[in-house]
Amino acid sequence: MINKLHISNVMKKFNLLTNISIIAFDLNGVPISASGYGKTLYDFLDKNTIYDKMINNYFNDGENIFNSNCYNNIEYILSPICPRNIYRGIFIIGPISQKKNNCIGAPYKPKHLYSYILKSLRLIFKDFPKKHIEMEKEKEYSLHIKKAIDYIDSRYMDNIGLDEVANYLNINKSYFSTIFKSETGESFTNFLNRLRVEKSKSLLVNKDYSMLDIALMVGFSNQNYYNIIFKKFTSYTPLQYRKVYTVYN
DNA sequence: GAGCAAGCGAGCATGCGACA
DNA sequence: TGTCGCATGCTCGCTTGCTC
């Protein structure tokens, strides 16, 4: 099982250090996480070049550097998330270019630096404080918060609020607000919205529902607000997210 | 149909004191 | 230590209206 938090943190650090965008996919082509100037990263990947072709070439020839079909001198590097097991998923690093003034403003990286780029990614991955990750994984919630999360997970599609969950737990709402934030690290509303956004992702990519339908299905009262919240958590509008996924299927 | 910006009001987050 | 009630500032949810 891939630890998404670990991957996400590694990618953020890699992007900070190198200024190169990076995206992670599982082996079904489903995006796990992205870091960098995300919109550009998605825009310049295209169906014929990137995911399927990269995977095939990597399996067949061990080739891990790919040119963009859309733009000259724009390249991507493929790297397995786990070097010993490509079935854990892949990183796609880029766009990068060997021309300083390229058409899309991709970072300039001469080819002889590619191996260093990959090495630095491996080093970050290796050095990232695993203790922190384990602590996150093993974090236990109090009974109140466990019950609250169960309740939210079963009722997120309804118009639930802080009041309702506090009543369900038979505790004061201000007290619930306090302990919820102290244990989960985010406010009740934030948690609920994030859950709704996560649930909506599968509806966006697997079904042909309209944005309004999906917004209503996961508990948002209108499409506009759904757009705002979706973009807040993913950096993409729901439509962009659907397009991205469609590209890889 | 989808995205975006602005404005407004509701209600959330928070701090504090009190109580068991 | 755990819980509750209250007050208050301000964040966020939502609507409206517009463009593409």
Automatic annotation (TrEMBL):
Signal peptide as annotated in the record: none
UniProt GO molecular function: DNA-binding transcription factor activity; sequence-specific DNA binding
Name of this protein: AraC family transcriptional regulator
InterPro entries: Homeodomain-like_sf, HTH_AraC, HTH_AraC-typ_CS
Pfam families in alphabetical order: HTH_18
Organism phylogeny: Bacteria, Bacillati, Bacillota, Clostridia, Eubacteriales
Taxonomic superkingdom: Bacteria
Ranges where the HTH araC/xylS-type domain occurs: 146-244
Sorted UniProt keywords: DNA-binding, Transcription, Transcription regulation
